[in-house]
Amino acid sequence: MSRFAIGPEASWAAFDRLVSRVARGADPAALREIVHVGALSGPEAEPLSERLQHLYSLAFDADEVMDAGQQAVAIAHGFHETWLARDSAGAVTAALQAQLVDLEGGAAMLVVWYVAAVPGLRTPARELFTRALADSLAAARARGRAVAAIVGETRPAVERTFNRYGLRRVYYRTPAGRLAEVPYRVPNDDLSDVVSEHLILIRLDGRADLEVAELLAIVRALHHEYLRPEYYTPAALRASERHRGHPLPMSATRDEASAAAYRDAFSASLARCRAELEHQLRGAEALVLLGERERRQLDAGAHAAPGRDDGFRERP
Question: Which of 44, 78, 218, 282 could form a disulfide with 39 if both were Cys (CB 3.0 to 4.6 A apart)?
């Protein structure tokens, strides 16, 4: 049985401690400059989605992010909350998008979908995370929702930053006893292949391990977000085609029936990804959460205590 359960008050207290931890060393002036954007109307959402798409194109491959059409849907319907850092001229220099997502059993998780910054600029990463976490905690309290975990995807180049905030990648023991990263995959938009991502998370109940059932619950909740009907209307799919520059399969934009068939095919591909993950983890014991430094220590044969060294140092 899954132990992935935490009461609202306990989760908010843990969340609050995490916000305080991340905020250490934050510049109060830079923190005040972070802009929080909630749901916008369609005409307002499109310009922001295009600015975000440009920013993300500097940091990610095209198949790793939503296109601007999907972003406009996510912003207009309030699926993604957005936090922005701007320069003195008002140009967006960094962004973070996150969402409170329901888990099975009544709790929620905060999903950090995207974090990106203009390369080469000094950006207020700590301030961006602090504001996003504080606002998300306030939203969870307002809804009376317990938050069991904070989940995201990472790249090796920015993993250490996530580690400083307590988030770690997920590993399991293979039958041969080797420590291997849990494979998290999603299909690309033309359904021709899957994209592998590095899943990263922190539990708010203080545990440094994860049961397979808990991981699968997280993955099911993530995949559910990919299938929101609002992303699969002919108009939304036409916007995706326009921004991606290639047609979607199955004549998805032709009419409602074609759009529904494309959504069904995407759902089936997600189900195959979950089945493969479940098969790969069959028989695995508790999964462990490890940061980049801990993995290097393990690779070097040194003892490492999972979940302990997150790179934070107390200020004198």
Answer: 78
